[in-house]
Write a structure and sequence with these properties.
The complex is a heterodimer of chains A (about 250) and B (about 375). Chain A is about 30% helix and about 25% strand. Chain A is an alpha/beta fold and about 250 residues long. The two termini of chain B are about 50 Å apart. Chain B has 16 helices and four strands. Chain B has two domains: about 270 residues, ABC transporter involved in vitamin B12 uptake, BtuC (Orthogonal Bundle), CATH 1.10.3470.10; about 100 residues, Orthogonal Bundle (Arc Repressor Mutant, subunit A), CATH 1.10.10. The radius of gyration of chain B is 29 Å and the shape is elongated. In chain B, helix 1 crosses helix 9. Classes of the chains: A alpha/beta (about 250), B mainly alpha (about 375). Chains A and B meet through strand 5 and helix 3 of A and helix 7, helix 8 and helix 10 of B.
Chain lengths: ~250, ~375
């Protein structure tokens, strides 16, 4: 009997990425099923951000392939949204919060076409969803770190993608913003979206995520949090005897 | 005004606008110095082009020289990518080498080439009206005007078509990539436009001063606005003002036109730098002063809230207790009284209801790290500031 399987959200085969021929990701095999809220954890320099950038095609791998719903990224551009690290852009750029969110709509517009009323409306809704509507006309350097992170999240929301890749969305935000962001992520998962999040705080992994990937240059383990988030894998990943209170 | 004077000013104004547009993006991309590299490194391209075409305004010469500009950018990026030197060093290595090749080429052929080092460095705007575009017998005006006009028209068309893409890739290269816009293509597009513009402006303002026309208007506008479109418009406005102002300055001082234009740009920048309403040095100074007073006020109000005992709140003891100079104590007391935050009876200060409320809310905002909300709070409570 042949059953047709929908391809996974992301499938990575034998992926190696190097900067100046020094591998930062080595022979990664990873399957991310559709509809999971997944954390990528690993020590500094483990290649977490690099993995996300390789999935997005921002950096070219030395070997291996990445497939998004069974096709290369270039054919699935509209299906993936990216939330980069806050520090990756210059916040002194002369623009407003609303304008940054509108940039998320550029992908569906394509070259030359300008955003119109429809895009503006969608962007305002996204701003509202992250609780930033009151700041829509604020120059972006006048926003706090947490607010900037929410703007980035709104920009990803407006892309209306199937897969969301986020590089440390909780970095430098206060507890309120962290809660607000995780609630939005959980809501997105309920809608069937796939969320892949580089995450640093091991304590909150079981509370926030249902899927986890351990990474340290090589792939250590990947699967449901309740099955594989244990001291054994943590020790393998971080190289020291790691103990985390996992309250399941 | 004679016809020649009008023509010179028109050329200068078009050159200024054509430079200001790519300049805004170069400044925002923190690539200002690449324009310096391009403007020098195109010299061998111009000289070679001149040998071939014998005409400084020939389109072939412009394309050849612009190509040298793009090659410069590629060379700089290549050297930088090796990781052995940083970008500024790479720029410093590439353009003098190319520039000196151009200088040697001119010197070797100085006898039969109408191109000298002075003109290369500072331009010859005053002579521009002599080289005319003739179609049949009809005089169509100076050639330089047509050249820079065409370049400006192309630049404006590209800006209009690709404004969204340029903005996106300048602000966030990563997002531009993931959305399917090629930042590399946009980068080299911008570099090509910059190179062509520099070549077109070269004849008028020379290799050294063209940099000022590219960077100064954008850098000045950046201090005045939070909006990219406005920044572009303001840059162009400053460029035109400097072009015409510079022309008349040169006229009355009997000095170099290009030099005077640059001087005007410098003066505009200095004035804006000092007097810009939000980001200027002087307004910054007053903002800092005001902030000092406001923080002092908050410390003072908090002190009042924390101390019920009368001797801690006596007007004359405040100076000793909070350890302030006489002037500051007086300023703070006055500011608090004027805004009805405190009342003084028998020289003992106490918080009013309004003062109590303000202190509570301000404290709440500070401890929950919502420092941006403080400004709104102050606006709500303060009738008089500073």
């Amino acid at each position: 009997m042949i059953t047709e399987h929908k391809p996974p959200a992301v499938q990575i085969d034998d992926l190696t990425v190097a900067y100046n021929y020094k591998p930062v990701l080595w022979d990664i095999d990873l399957v991310i099923p559709e509809g999971v809220l997944m954390a990528i954890v690993g020590p500094n320099g483990a290649g977490k951000s690099t993995l996300i950038k390789a999935i997005l095609g921002i950096i070219q791998p030395l070997a291996g392939s990445v497939q998004i719903f069974g096709k290369p990224y270039k054919k699935q551009v509209g299906k993936v949204a990216y939330v980069p690290q806050k520090g990756s852009v210059d916040w002194d750029f002369p623009t407003t919060a609303l304008d940054v969110v509108m940039m998320g709509t550029y992908g569906s517009l394509g070259w030359i076409k300008r955003p119109g009323q429809k895009e503006k409306k969608a962007s305002l809704e996204a701003l509202d969803k992250v609780g930033m509507l009151a700041f829509k006309n604020r120059q972006i350097s006048q926003l706090s770190g947490g607010q900037q992170q929410r703007i980035f999240l709104a920009r990803a929301l407006v892309q209306n993608a199937s897969i969301y890749l986020m590089d440390e969305p909780f970095q430098g935000v206060d507890a309120t913003t962290e809660k607000a962001i995780i609630n939005i992520l959980k809501e997105l998962r309920k809608e069937g979206k796939t969320l892949i999040v580089v995450h640093h705080d091991l304590q909150t992994v079981p509370e926030y995520f249902d899927w986890v990937t351990f990474l340290n240059v090589k792939g250590i383990a990947s699967g449901p949090v309740k099955d594989i988030f244990n001291d054994d894998n943590l020790t393998k990943t971080y190289g020291i005897n790691y103990k985390v209170a996992v309250n399941q | 005004m004679t016809n020649a004077q009008i023509e010179i000013q028109a050329i200068a104004a078009l050159v200024a606008v054509a430079c200001a547009i790519p300049g805004a993006f170069l400044v925002l991309r923190k690539m200002s110095m690449i324009s310096d590299a391009i403007s020098h490194a195109i010299l061998p391209g111009i000289v070679l082009g001149f040998f071939i075409t014998q005409d400084l305004n020939s389109p072939l010469l412009i394309l050849l020289a612009a190509l040298t500009g793009v090659i410069t950018v590629i060379l700089v990026e290549y050297i930088q990518k090796t990781g052995l030197v940083k970008e500024d060093t790479a720029i410093g290595l590439v353009f003098p080498a190319l520039f000196s090749i151009g200088v040697i080429l001119i010197a070797k052929n100085a006898n039969d080439v109408h191109l000298d080092i002075d003109a290369v460095l500072l331009g010859e705007l005053a002579f521009a009206p002599f080289d005319r575009l003739l179609i049949g017998e009809t005089d169509m005006g100076p050639k330089s005007l047509w050249v820079i006009g065409t370049i400006l028209l192309i630049t404006l068309t590209l800006l209009f078509l690709f404004f969204k893409e340029l903005k996106l890739s300048t602000f966030d290269k990563g997002l531009a990539t993931t959305l399917g816009f090629s930042p590399v293509l946009l980068h080299y597009g911008l570099m090509t436009v910059s190179s062509v513009t520099v070549v077109g402006a070269f004849d008028a303002v020379g290799a050294v001063l063209v940099v000022a026309l590219i960077i100064a208007p954008a850098a000045t506008a950046y201090l005045l606005t939070d909006n990219l479109k406005k920044m572009l418009i303001i840059s162009c406005g400053f460029g035109v003002f400097a072009a015409i102002g510079g022309y008349w300055m040169a006229h009355f001082l009997n000095a170099s036109i290009a030099g005077s234009m640059t001087t005007v740009l410098g003066i505009i920048f200095l004035l804006v730098y000092l007097f810009a309403p939000k980001q200027g040095v002087i307004s910054g100074f007053f903002q800092e002063k005001q902030q000092q007073v406001e923080v002092s006020l908050l410390i003072f109000l908090l002190h009042l809230q924390n101390h019920a005992e009368a001797e801690e709140r006596h007007v004359n003891h405040l100076r000793e207790h909070i350890n302030w100079q006489k002037v500051r104590s007086k300023t703070v007391l006055e500011l608090a009284t004027k805004n009805n935050l405190i009342q003084i009876s028998d020289d003992v200060v106490s918080l009013t209801d309004k003062g109590q409320e303000f202190t509570d809310e301000a404290l709440n905002y500070i401890t929950t790290n919502k420092a941006t909300a403080i400004e709104e709070l102050k606006n709500r409570f303060f009738l008089f500031r500073g």
